[in-house]
Amino acid sequence: ANKYMNNQNILSEDTLKLKTKVLIFSGVSLFIGLTKVLPTKLSLIGLNFEQNERVVGWFLLIITIFLFINFILVASLNIAKYFKNHLIKRKSKTLTGDTIGLTYAEIGQEYDRQQGHYEEQRGTLSNEADDIQRKIKALEDKFDKNHITFNNIIEILFNFITPIILAIISIKYLYCFLIQ
C-alpha cells in the first residue's frame, strides 16, 4: 500500500453535494450555449418567459458562476486538509532542534553511531528530538488555524452574506416589477 494514500474521501460530503449542483448547472449551461436555444418555460416552478427568454439564460449563468466559485474554494480547502500530514512531513524534514541543531535524521545517525555507549544528559539528542516535535506541532497548529480561518471566511461569504445579498436584490427587483 502506498504510504501517502489513505481511505478517507478527499472531498467532504457537503462539497460532493456542491459538486453535483455545479455539474448539473454547468451541463445545462453548456447545452444552452451549444444549442443556442434558451428555454422559455421553467416547468419545475411554473414560470413562462416567452416574452423575455434571456432572463432564464442570465439566471442560469449567475447561479452557475456562483456555484462554480464556491466549489473551487471549498474543494481547495478540502484538498489542502487532505494533504496536510504529507505537507507537514515534507516541511519538517529540515527542522532542527534548538539545543544542538540536529535534524531527526542526524539524531538517528548519532544514536546509531553511539550504539548505547552514550549516557544522555540535558541538551542532548532526546532534547533535540523534543524541540523538533514542538516545531512540528507548531507547524500543524499554524496550518490548522489558517485553514479554519480561511474556511470560515468562505463559509460566511458564500453561505451567509451572498444569500442575503442575493435575496435583497431579488426582492428589490421583484417588488419594483410588481408595483409597476
Written description of the protein model:
This protein has 5 helices and 2 strands; from the N terminus they run αββαααα. A hairpin with a 4-residue loop joins β1 and β2 (47-48). The termini are far apart. The radius of gyration is 27 Å and the shape is elongated. The protein has helices spanning 13-35, 54-82, 84-92, 104-114, 125-178, and strands at 41-42, 47-48. Helix content is 70%, strand content 2%. A two-stranded antiparallel ribbon has the order 1-2. It has 180 residues and is mainly α.
SSE topology:
Layout: H1 13-35, E1 41-42, E2 47-48, H2 54-82, H3 84-92, H4 104-114, H5 125-178
Antiparallel strand pairs: 1-2
Helix pairs in contact: 1-2, 2-5, 3-5, 4-5
What portion of the residues fall into strands of 2 or more residues?
under 5%
Residue share in helices? over 70%
Measured distance between first and last alpha carbons: 68 Å
Report the total helices.
Answer: 5
Q: What's the number of extended β-strand segments?
A: 2
Q: Main sheet: which strands, in order across?
A: 1-2
Low-confidence stretches: 1-7
Average predicted local confidence, pLDDT = 78
Q: Please compute the radius of gyration using only Cα atoms.
A: 27 Å
Q: Label the overall shape.
A: elongated
Main sheet characteristics: 2 strands, antiparallel
Structural class category: mainly alpha
Order of helices and strands: HEEHHHH
Name the features.
two-stranded antiparallel sheet, 2 strands, elongated, mainly alpha, 180 residues, 70% helix, 2% strand
Sum this structure up briefly.
This protein is mostly helical and about 180 residues long.
